[in-house]
Amino acid sequence: MKVILEDTQSAAIQEAGHSVSASLTAENTFSDEIVLRGKFDVSVSGTFVGTVTVQRSWDDGVTWVDCADYTTPTETFGEQITNNILYRIGCQTGNFTSGTMVVRLSL
Fold first, then answer.
1. How far apart are CA 5 and CA 73, in angstroms?
2. Read out DSSP for the chain?
3. pLDDT tens, the chain, 107 aa long
4. What fold characterizes domain 2-7+19-106?
5. Is the dihedral of CA 65, 68, 74, 76 positive or negative?
6. Global pTM?
7. Which of 11, 53, 54, 73 has minimal CB crowding within 10 Å?
8. Which residues, at least 6 apart from 105, have a Cβ–Cβ distance to it below 8 Å?
9. Which residue ranges make up each domain of the chain?
């Protein structure tokens, strides 16, 4: 599922609650894809040993590029100024040891 969001002046587009999230308990698992534009929130919580990675794709999900890694619970933000870039958040192969990673990307 793709969710398309833009950070513009349009109230219809800026509705609260537009996000993708997942509870990860294994490697090679990610949230759904989401198109983000403007500032967006990155949330990593839970009790886990491993690395959470935010990835983006310029070619509609064919190729994913790592943007940021988190090894502890984190609340931060990112900013995307280019249109039509897909994002996802999750745990790559080899980066999960134990616990539950609760991850979210939201506008």
1. 25
2. -EEE---SS-TTTT-TT-EEEEEE-SSSEEPPEEE--EEEEEEEESSEEE-EEEEEESSTTSS-EEEEEESS-EEEEEEE-SSS-EEEEEE-TT-EEEE-EEEEEE-
3. 444 444 443 323 334 458 999 999 999 999 999 999 889 999 999 999 999 999 999 999 999 999 999 999 999 999 998 888 999 999 999 999 999 999 999 98
4. Jelly Rolls (2.60.120)
5. negative
6. 0.83
7. 11
8. 19, 20, 21, 31, 34, 36, 40, 41, 42, 43, 54, 87, 88, 89
9. 2-7+19-106
pLDDT score recorded for residue 16: 45
Q: Extract the tokens encoding 17.
A: 């609650």
